Amino acid sequence: MKRFVTAVLLGVLGLYTVSSAHAVGDPKHGTDIFAEECADCHSVLQDKNKKGPSLWGVAGRPSGAIADFDYSSAMRQSGIVWTADKMDAYITQPKQVVAGTRMKYDGLGDAKARADLIAYLTSLH
Residue 25: is its pLDDT beyond 60? Predict the structure, then answer.
């Protein structure tokens, strides 16, 4: 009971999270994670696509929204809006979140690394 009350109090204060998508990540470390995991295929520069679309301004953007990028039909039709929760799920297991995606990435299992990466991506605007 004491742990539950502590978790509730910390949750109210914003210091405890239930899922990694809500965890406060370190955007500075997220830069390193991006370089290791994403930079071969994605840019963080506005209007600079690579094999994958630019991730500049990805937070809050609907999937398939960059007009000059050739998304898979699965991604265009997914209806996803890139919230922290959706980014977390997709980065964890892309092919399960969007069956038919062309992204050749198996996922990032480390929840802390994902939180850091998402903190970095959400800072790009």
Answer: yes
